[in-house]
Amino acid sequence: MKQEKIDRINTLAKKHKTEGLTPEETAERETLHKEYVAGVRKNLTGQLENTYVMDEQGNKQKLKQREE
Predict the structure, then answer these.
(1) How far is CA 51 from the centre of its chain?
(2) Which residue pairs from 25-30 have beta carbons closer than 8 angstroms and sit at least 24 positions apart in sequence?
(3) CA distances to 48, 62, 63 from 66, in Å
(4) CA distances from 50 to 38, 44, 59, 64, 68 (A)
(5) What are 6-36's pLDDT values in tens digits?
(6) DSSP single-letter state for residue 2
(7) Cβ-count burial of 15 within 10 angstroms (0-12 exposed, 13-18 middle, 19+ buried)?
(8) Which residues contact 61 (CB under 8 A, 6 or more apart)?
(9) How far, in whole angstroms, is CA 1 from its chain's centroid?
């Protein structure tokens, strides 16, 4: 996510706390927030896909996705 969008999220958050948001600003904030969360999840998934755990014998094992 570009820094401009992050700055806009922060600006809307500050405005929400002080004076409130218009319905258009609320919708924009929700859209930007969803985009931000999706980016964080994508980055975390990428990190976890390249994470290995070593057992007592020193063998590397790739993390497996938990079945829910």
Answers:
(1) 19
(2) none
(3) 12, 12, 9
(4) 19, 10, 15, 11, 21
(5) 999 999 999 999 999 999 999 999 999 999 9
(6) -
(7) middle
(8) 52, 53, 54, 55
(9) 10
- DSSP code, position 68: -
From the list 9, 43, 41, 42, the residue with the least C-alpha distance to 26 is: 9
Amino acid, res. 54: M
Task: Tell me the C-alpha distance between 44 and 18, whole Å.
Answer: 32
User: Which tokens is 27 given?
Assistant: 């919708």
Task: Tell me, yes or no, if the pTM score tops 0.85.
Answer: no
